[in-house]
Design goal:
The chain is of the alpha/beta class and 141 residues long. The chain has one domain: Collagenase (Catalytic Domain), CATH 3.40.390.30. It is built from 5 helices and 4 strands. A 4-stranded mixed sheet has the order 1-2-4-3, sandwiched between helices. Helix 1 links the parallel strand 1 and strand 2. The two termini are 22 Å apart. It is found in: Cytoplasm. Belongs to the endoribonuclease YbeY family. Single strand-specific metallo-endoribonuclease involved in late-stage 70S ribosome quality control and in maturation of the 3' terminus of the 16S rRNA. It is an enzyme of class 3 (hydrolase). It comes from Chitinophaga nivalis.
Length: 141
């Protein structure tokens, strides 16, 4: 199982990477989802917009795009792209720290790969609840 973080044309202050990798592995375990590989790419709005257009045919800015790359639904091989520009803007908008918002989005992507959706109001409420649960667990430790 490999969890990797890559930075593409942005600056990001990701603290305690070892702790975060262990926590993410435990998140997948708690959710009953196998994990083979997980690659986070922290990037700019412009970079993520191009990915959104090319792969999802969405011409909008977003904070995250998540891809399942594997063929086994029980074992994740994922790529998660996160716009640091959106994270910073959303942190201001929601009145939280950049670190808090970055971790919310990191966990959000992992939860998508565990099968959680956020299209309907009910799905979005459950997703937000799971994000909050993981934030509390992570920052308590």
């Amino acid at each position: 199982m490999a969890i990797q973080f890559t930075v593409h044309e942005v600056k990001v202050n990701l603290k305690e990477k070892r702790k975060l990798k262990s926590f993410l592995a435990a998140l997948f375990e708690r959710e009953g989802q196998g994990l083979k590989s997980l690659h986070y790419v922290f990037c700019s709005d412009a970079y993520l917009l191009e990915i959104n257009k090319q792969f999802l045919q969405h011409d909008t800015y977003t904070d995250i795009v998540t891809f399942e790359m594997g063929e086994d639904p029980d074992v994740t091989e994922g790529e998660i792209y996160i716009s640091i520009d959106r994270v910073v803007d959303n942190a201001l908008k929601f009145g939280v720290s950049n670190e808090q918002e970055l971790h919310r989005v990191i966990f959000h992507g992992a939860l998508h790969l565990c099968g959680y959706k956020d299209k309907s109001k009910k799905e979005a409420e459950l997703m937000r609840s799971k994000e909050d649960e993981n934030l509390a667990l992570y920052f308590e430790a």
